[in-house]
Structure formats: structure tokens, C-alpha cells
Queue: 3 jobs
Job 1
Amino acid sequence: MYIFVSSVTLIYGFGFKKLILISKKPHHIIAYCLKSLLSITASISLTWVIANNILAAYNMAEIYPFFAVLFTVFFSMIFQRFIFSSFKIDTAEFTLTFLTVILAVAEGGDFQNALIIGISSCISFYFLIPLLWSIRKRFQLSAISTDFKTGALAFISLALIILALYSSNVSWLNLGVYK
């Protein structure tokens, strides 16, 4: 559900700027995605255990983002160094991973749901990269002025995608509410 219908990038804006930058030259997407998925899975696992077993018992569940930051930084650095030492690919990215961990722990009713939300949120971001890259390539083939070929065109394209996906969710179009 979070992959296509409720993409965190389109709804909340997680990684929106990074999406625009990566879609210019989408090299090493698999390495970025692998690093993000591993970091998110490990961070959610530890943050969930700390938040629900320790912090909730002492009515301190509000401070779980502090632990999410610690675990996300730790695992992001470990997996980033592993990928760099193995493949010589720099996969420096933190914002998407951290915000996804916060969202997954906050919205997940149980551990499995938190993992599903985190993994599908990450995958939804990486599914948008080839889509935006293809839109950029299509505009490069057309006769658009060079002033308009910057990030503004990518933002307009994503805005149209958001409008197409979520226009049916407008309350005045849903007549069942007023019956």
C-alpha cells in the first residue's frame, strides 16, 4: 500500500530533493536502495524494541526519535562503509532513512507492520527515480527552452503525478460523505 498508493515521497515529501538530484544521473540505484533497506530494517528493529519494551513501560515513548537518530546514524554509517569498501560506491544518504524509521515506528501497530511500512516506504522512493528519469529524458527530446529544463520541470511533473494519483481523495468528489 505504501509503495504506490501512499508513497511517502509524494505524500510527506521524504527525500523529495534527493529524488530530483538522483533522477538526473540514476547510477548505482541498487546500491543506494540496498543500503537504505538494510539501514531501515536494522534501525526499525532496534528502535521498535527500545520504544515498546523500555520507553513505553516508563511512559517515555515520546523520546523514541532520539534512539531512532542514534540507530539510524549507526547503521547508515556501517552499511555505507561496507558498500564503499566492497564496491567503491558512495551511498551517503540519511534523511530518507531517518524519516522512514520515524514514520514506521510511529504508524506501525506491531513490529511486522512497522517493518512493512518502512520497507515499502523505501521501495516507493526508489520506484520514483526511474519514472522521473524517464520524464526528464522525454523532455530532453522535446523542444523545450533550456531555462525550463531545470528542476522546475521535475517539480511540475511530480506535482502532476500527485494530482493524478490523489485527486479522487478530495472530499467534494466523494458523494458518500454527504448522504
Job 2
Amino acid sequence: MKNVLILFFIFSASIYDINAQVIHQNRHSLGVSLGMSHAFGMSYQYLGERTGIHTSLTPFVDLNDEYSFVAFSIGPMLHLLDSPQARYFLYESNGFVVNHYANKSDIVFMPAIGAGSKIWLNDNLTFDVALGIGILFGNEESGFPDYIMLPDVNLGFYYSF
């Protein structure tokens, strides 16, 4: 895992353009995320001078089959540094998935920590990559063991303003 993080930062740093004069200061981002601890679906990020927050939500309800599904994530971010093409951050995330059907509920919870980069594709579009380590907890109905340690991979595509 340590080697993957090192390769990730080398790749992100390789797109650094020394001659670029523009450092992106957009702090708010709306988009979609996909990942283990960041859940998946519609997402909002705020990454300020030192701290930030990430949240995502995917609700689904089928009234005919009495089935509902919710994926939700929230967690703090710590801004590390800026380059003209990327912003680097540390994150802690808390992802929840709840499936409710036929009077039973599967609940899965995954807290995780790691590092990431917000890579600028143009003035407002960014691609986020975050890598870390997390622990997946599930209840008896979920079919998971009490807990299991997993790598945490999260991707996102955002419009920043």
C-alpha cells in the first residue's frame, strides 16, 4: 500500500507545470463520487485553506417492493499543498450503506483514512483520486464478518466553483 501511495504522488507531481501562473482557488465542488468509504452518488466537497469536508448521498426507494437503499458518506479533509495542476489532501471518511427490505436491514459501515489529489482538468473540472486504508464493519444480516481491513480507493469527477 505504501508503494501505491508513493506512485500516486509521483504521478500527480509529474503533471506539475513550473511555468503555469494560475493556482486554482476554487473551494466548493459538486459532482459524483465512487468509492469504498466515500460511498457513491451525488457529492459535495469544500476544501479551504487548511480544512475541508466531503459528503455524498445516494437514496433509492421502491414503494411497490418495500425496498430502500441509502449510501451516505461524510468526513473531514486536511489541505496539504497546492500546485498549479493539483491540490493534495489527507482525508478521514465514514461511509454507510443501508439496505432495507422485507423488515430486514443490512447495514455496512466503513471508516477510512488516506491521502488524495484533486487534479484540474480545466478551470472548473477536476478529477479526484484518494487512496487509503479502511475497516469494513457489517451487521449479521449483511453477510460480512464482524470487521475486515480493506484498501480504500475513491474516485470523483467534480465541477468546482
Job 3
Amino acid sequence: MKGNLLKFVLIASLVLNLSLLGTAAYKYYKQYGYWVSPFGNKMKKGSFIFEKLDLRPEQLKAMKEQAIPFRAEIDRRRYEIAQKRAGLFTLLREASPDKKAISSAISEISAMQEEMQGRITGHILEVKGSLNREQQKKFLDLIENAMKQDGQIGCPHAE
């Protein structure tokens, strides 16, 4: 009887461990296949917003060549901002928070976000300049729709 109970516990433990391992692998796989766009949307890796435009093959190739290093730079900057935010929360958790250090961290985060927004805007203008009028309109419409959340651009406002 004791041996059967031990076998049951071992099998249950093995099933639980395998299911946890499978869940972790699945989560990693799903996360690895996506990136966050400059507008905060999750997109499959290798997909580009401008693929929805009617581009000539040479335009599509040129835009992909521009977009890949741009995405890498934005992802790097997004990571740096996340690190600064983590540092800010470390300061906030202190028993006696240093208000000057908190203010400095907020200023650094704001400056980094402003610089990143400037780079995104510059990239949009650069891409826009390589398109004809019809493509420009569709491109800007795609970007505007990507930025919309619940039918509103940006943060929802209080009613």
C-alpha cells in the first residue's frame, strides 16, 4: 500500500513538473515570436505595417532595410527606459525616499522618452518622404489606427 502511494505521488509530481515546463516553454515561444511596435502594439516578428501598402518591390525592400535597424534601436531604448523605471521604483521603495533622486530619475525617463519619440517621428517622416501621395495617406492612416486604443488616440480621458 505504501509503495502504491509513493508511486502515485511520484507520477503526480512528474506530471505537474512536465506541465509547468511545457507552460514555460510555450510562453517563451509565444513571447519570442512577437515584438512591440513603436506604438506599443504587439506584432509578429517579421511583419511590417507598411506591408499593407501597395508598394513596389524595390520600395518594400528599402523599407525593410530601414525598419530592421530602427526596430532594434527602439527595442534597445525601450529596454533602457524600463531599466530606469525599475530604478525609480527602487528609489520609491526606500524607507526614506530621496526626493531629489526621484525627481532626477523622472527627468531622465522623460528625456529618454522624448528622444525616442523624436526618433520615431523622424523615422515616420523619412518613410513618408519615400512614398507617393496615395501611399502617404494610407501609411499615416495605418499608423493612426495602430495608435488608437478603444477608439481614442493615446490615454483615455476621464468623462
